[in-house]
Amino acid sequence: MAQNGSEAGPLVAGVAGRYASALFELARDERQVDAVAESLDRFDALLKESPDLSRLVRSPVFSGEEQAAALGAVLDRAGISGLAGNFIRLVASNRRLFALPGMIRAFRTLVRESKGIVRAEVRVAEKPSDAVLEEIRSSLRDVAKSDVDIDLQVDPSLIGGLVVKMGSRMVDASLRTKLNGIRLAMREAR
């Protein structure tokens, strides 16, 4: 317990953090954290795939009733029900859909922290094979002394190599950075 009487825990702030914390506590009490996380991940994938759904979520033009009705149909069709479905419907009825992507990210953070999983952002020049990805995961697991959740991003501008950010640490082993270093050394040698 913290000095103010609240439980010490991860810092989540703003509307997204408060909603995510409330959902996480409810899901934990109901022993449905993994099911809720899976449903929110499916909804997040739908958001990324559908520009129309993304526009519905972000646009203040639609009324709360219109958003709730449209989302209800999307949730039913996607098979998202239970706590996650009710949560998304509540967010829509409270006119907070614009913050839903942030709520999903904050919920993921709370799940990772509760399971002791460290998040690592890995940028690579091209999509690695499963074997290479597992080797990266294994190396990061050894460094973190914990399970690692990899957020993989493909960035062709790196030319080759990779950039890893884990917590406050960052390792840039990209070919682009090495070439820039050589270019700088060549200028200084003149």
Question: Helix and strand layout, with pairings?
Answer:
Elements: H1 14-29, H2 33-49, H3 51-58, H4 64-78, H5 82-93, H6 100-115, E1 118-124, H7 130-144, E2 148-154, E3 161-166, E4 169-174, H8 175-189
Parallel strand pairs: 1-2
Antiparallel strand pairs: 1-3, 3-4
Features:
single chain, 190 residues, alpha+beta, four-stranded mixed sheet, 8 helices, 4 strands, 60% helix, disordered N terminus
User: How much helicity do the residues have?
Assistant: 55-70%
**Class by SSE composition:** alpha+beta
Using DSSP, what is the number of strands?
4
Q: Which percent band covers the strand fraction?
A: 5-15%
Radius of gyration: 21 Å
Question: How would you explain this protein's 3D organization?
Answer:
The structure is a single chain. With 190 residues, the protein is of the alpha+beta class. The protein has 8 helices and 4 strands, in the order ααααααβαβββα. Helix 2 (33-49) crosses helix 3 and helix 2 packs antiparallel against helix 6. It is elongated, with a radius of gyration of 21 Å. Residues 1-10 have low confidence and may be disordered.
